[in-house]
Write a structure and sequence with these properties.
This protein is mainly alpha-helical. It has a domain at 7-97 and 139-169. The protein contains six helices and two strands. It has helices at residues 7-29, 37-58, 63-92, 105-111, 114-123, 140-172; strands at 134-135, 138-139. It has a two-stranded antiparallel ribbon with strand order 1-2. Helix 1 packs antiparallel against helix 6 (140-172) and helix 4 packs antiparallel against helix 5 (114-123).
Amino acid sequence: MQTPWFRWYYALALLLSVSALTAALILQYQQGLMPCALCQLQRVVFVLLALSLIIALAKRTSYRFIYSLALVNTVWCTFGLYFALRQLWLIAHVQSESAICGAGIAFLFAHLPWGEAMKSAFLGTGDCAISTWTWLGISLPGWCAINYSAILFLSWLPVWCRVIRRRLHLQQSPPTP
């Protein structure tokens, strides 16, 4: 049996997600870069994306499932883009007193009420305003934003191809008398 054409898009999106997670873990454990709260939330989003893409690759898919997967991945990528763009904004607008201190996500949830910890995690801490790693002039949250955008595009590409195929098929079919 031949692999459906759209699964290659999911495999590429899964590769992007796993690559981002691998790079983050290498930077943490080999380079010694400790992740801030927004970085940790971005990792969670990459894990959720990877899980949804693994399910898409393992399950026999219908076009309804493809559309549902695109919607679910849109939600995850929206969260991921928010975290990455918020961190990029914090880096661009670094203020000396806010960049001095900051707590990791584990500390926030251990010592603050749940609502306060979520607010602090979603808005970022002082640690999030420090850019310690760049590649090709783009910081780590910038690369995460690029990955989220690419995964979002790859998630919707099968839906768009299906719509285009249907329209072309309807245009080519002769009218019924």
